[in-house]
């Protein structure tokens, strides 16, 4: 997916936000209230993230236009707007503590979806021990058994 990053949103900044969210996702879980009640705000933000993320995927992968055409320029403008929304939602999610296993899994699912692409876009080595460890932790948290 070719995700255009607008001015002020560097790929490294996106990666830093993603890694900050990983740190937040690894915080201890509180066991008082029901999981849905504990993480209602986080789950609402996650739902909004997935809606925007799926719109980006649909627009970017399902639409093909000739480079430089008016349709392509319109699509790029839409993708820029959606990318800003997605970035803002990820930032809000990273600032919202997960208080249950469901909240932790929600954050890990998002990171599993976006981190590999960010790594590729930033030309980071996918075999980096640190990034492999982060991906392994996320996969453990979401129940995925293969790395």
Structural features:
147 residues, mainly alpha, 2 domains, 69% helix, globular, disordered N terminus
Mind sketching the topology for me?
Elements: H1 11-25, H2 35-38, H3 40-62, H4 70-94, H5 101-121, H6 129-142
Helix pairs in contact: 1-4, 1-5, 3-4, 3-5, 5-6
What does this structure look like?
This protein has helices at residues 11-25, 35-38, 40-62, 70-94, 101-121, 129-142. It has 147 residues and is mostly helical. It folds into two domains: 39-97; 100-146, no CATH class. Residues 1-33 form the signal peptide. This is Twin-arginine translocation signal domain-containing protein. Keywords: Signal.
Main sheet: strands, sense, barrel: none
The structure class reads mainly alpha
Mean pLDDT across every amino acid position: 75
Instruction: Name the shape in a single word.
Output: globular
How far the N terminus sits from the C terminus, by CA atoms, comes to: 21 Å
Estimate percent helicity.
55-70%
Radius of gyration: 16 Å
| Approximate strand percentage | under 5%
Please write the string of helix (H) and strand (E) elements.
HHHHHH
* Total separate domains: 2
| Quaternary status | single chain
What's the number of helices? Answer: 6
Number of strands: 0
Keywords: Signal
Protein name: Twin-arginine translocation signal domain-containing protein
Signal peptide: 1-33
Organism: Acetobacter oryzoeni
């Amino acid at each position: 997916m070719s995700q255009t990053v607008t001015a002020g949103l560097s790929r490294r900044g996106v990666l830093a936000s993603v890694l900050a969210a990983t740190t937040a996702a690894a915080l201890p879980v509180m066991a008082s209230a029901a999981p849905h009640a504990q993480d209602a705000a986080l789950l609402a933000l996650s739902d909004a993230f997935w809606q925007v993320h799926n719109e980006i995927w649909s627009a970017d992968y399902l639409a093909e236009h000739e480079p430089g055409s008016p349709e392509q320029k319109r699509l790029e403008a839409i993708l820029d707007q959606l990318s800003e929304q997605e970035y803002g939602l990820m930032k809000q999610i990273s600032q919202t503590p997960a208080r249950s296993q469901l909240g932790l899994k929600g954050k890990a699912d998002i990171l599993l979806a976006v981190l590999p692409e960010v790594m590729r876009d930033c030309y980071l080595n996918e075999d980096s021990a640190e990034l492999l460890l982060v991906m392994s932790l996320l996969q453990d948290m979401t129940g995925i058994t293969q790395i």
